Amino acid sequence: MLTLGVDLAAADKRTAMATVEWLPGRAVVRDLILNVDDVRIVEAGGHVDKVGLDCPLGWPEPFVALVQAHRLGHVAVADGEGAQWRRRLAYRLTDEVVREKTGIIPLSVSADRIAHAAFRCAGLLAMLAAAGHDVDRGGGGRVVEVYPAAALYCWGLAHRGYKGRGQQVQHADLVTALRDAAPWLDLGMFEGLCRCSHDAFDSVIAALNARAAAIGLAVQPSDDQRPIARVEGWIALPTGPLSNLIHGADE
């Protein structure tokens, strides 16, 4: 099995992509590149079993309805419901599930700067679909939405404080912690890149998360949640320890 992890930024710069091969008893990072464009992501997606995209795959349905209503001048807010109304506009169903299960509050795709990456992602999903890939925003197809910070939390690893300027030590410590927790993961020649770039590191985590989704070790939407997940996107939270990812690898 091959999985692809993409840490998607608004532009090619800061976008990283990792390919992980799953073998008996081990997993090997076969490729890890920075500054990746959409064409390269689509091409790589055609050679793997599952693609983990670190980016919201859609917007909250109430937010979409608001934009349409606002265009026509028909927005109405019930008395005393302003705060809850705004929260429904800002957070998707999957964001609320992540918050409930991990305590982590995902960035709002309708109210935070991550929307810029989501704009790009919308076009990328269309390109993947046009290339013949099964794109199901609920995670049932080749593409699945992942959230590295939440995945790290689920796997018992540090999920905050390793990004940004002045965080090189914390970031390097996290790579060491990952190696200790997953001795079967071979970073090979890409270990140095993982240590110096959190974008590269996150793309590897996205590829691991894609593996969890591919083998049924990630939270899936319920029958009631699935129709919304297929529109808004669904974050595939891992449901077991890192060691479970290596079980059932291809012989």
From TrEMBL:
Top-rank lineage group of the source organism: Bacteria
Name this protein carries in UniProt: DUF429 domain-containing protein
